[in-house]
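User: Good morning. I'm curious how L-homoserine would be positioned relative to this chain. Could you predict the structure with it bound?
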Amino acid sequence: MKTIKAFAPATVANVSCGFDILGFALEGMGDWVTVTERESPGLEVISIQGDGGKLPYDSDKNTCTVAIQAMIDELGINPGIEIQLEKGLPLGSGMGSSAASAVAALVAANELLGNPFQKNELLPFAIAAEKVACGAGHADNVGPSLLGGFVLIRDYHLLDVIKLPVPEELHCVLLHPHYQLNTADSRSVLRDQIPLRHATIQSGNVAGLVTGLFQGDFDLISRSLRDVIAEPYRAVLIPGFYEVREAIKAAGALGMGISGSGPTLFVLCKGSAPIPGIITAAQEVFESIGLGVDAYHSAINTRGAHIL
Ligand code: HSE
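Assistant: Good morning! Here's the predicted structure, ligand included:
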């Protein structure tokens, strides 16, 4: 029986000012999905590793099966596929964990079925899985996990998704405090309406960040990492947020924000090597409030999900 394995990377969604419309992919971290043909029709998750027993096997709830089901529904077929999921990403971390599982499953299943879809055509199926995972069909994790690099979702209705350039020397530090925050909970604190002056500030920063990426202007990128829509409400869910931001900026980072819906924080930096003081500065703040933190250094992954 034919077997295919795929990898999909972790992602940072929002990138401060781009709530639900901007994200980028990370190197080294992600999820793996193996799909195997079987004779009897239907999808079945047969093993999940690395989730501490928390993820559902139920095909209506597991993001791998929800995504593949959406894809085969579109094709009008009902093949037999067994799915094995290996989680490299912590759940509820803000690193795009549910997205990486769905995207790896889609890339593997698409290959198993003889590639009926181009890579970018898999996006709607991954969005369907996000909707089941967190109640909102946001594409700012699945987009970059699938396609790699920096991704802009210009329009959800038309699914107009644009890959942005990644300046050389841009890299990221992820700070993952030791607790879980579910996206649905972290979305529930947000407001439905925003004041006009906040819309103006936010638009300026999104435009600034995108321009900074195109021009490789690190100072402009740094100035544009500001969010007045989600961060003010979510920062209270992350102890030490403002102190860590002050400390990492003093240590030479371009800026910091909440990775997706948190609690992981992303720090953008310029340079080909990690800036030594940044991780220590953040760890000291978290330690002072009694919170353990894992820190990872990563380049921006421009390849996205792929077959192994
Ligand atoms: N844009 C989404 C949110 C990302 O902020 O809720 C979730 O990872």
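The chain has two domains: 3-165, 170-299. The first helix runs from residue 63 to 75.
Let me know if you'd like a different ligand tried.
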